[in-house]
Amino acid sequence: MYFSFFGSLVIGGIVAYLTEKWDLTHHGVLQAIIIATGGVFLLYMARVMFGISFGSPGVNAIVGAAGALILIPSEAAARRRRRRR
Fold it and tell me: Which residue in 17, 43, 51, 66 is deepest, having the highest Cβ count within 10 Å?
């Protein structure tokens, strides 16, 4: 159980880094990793408590991280940064 949890967090961090590197989101790397790990944590807890799952823990981690990064409005953060410059 612990290995799948920590593995899911690592996969979530990798997904967050890649979305920032490919300019899919505009949060910043550290903020994206925090958001993605939060989404992974929530989906992992939903899997443990309610049995809600999209497949293996790795697939759940990718879906949770991508879902959290999409739900947080990244364009609003990018607009705010552009106004400061």
Answer: 43
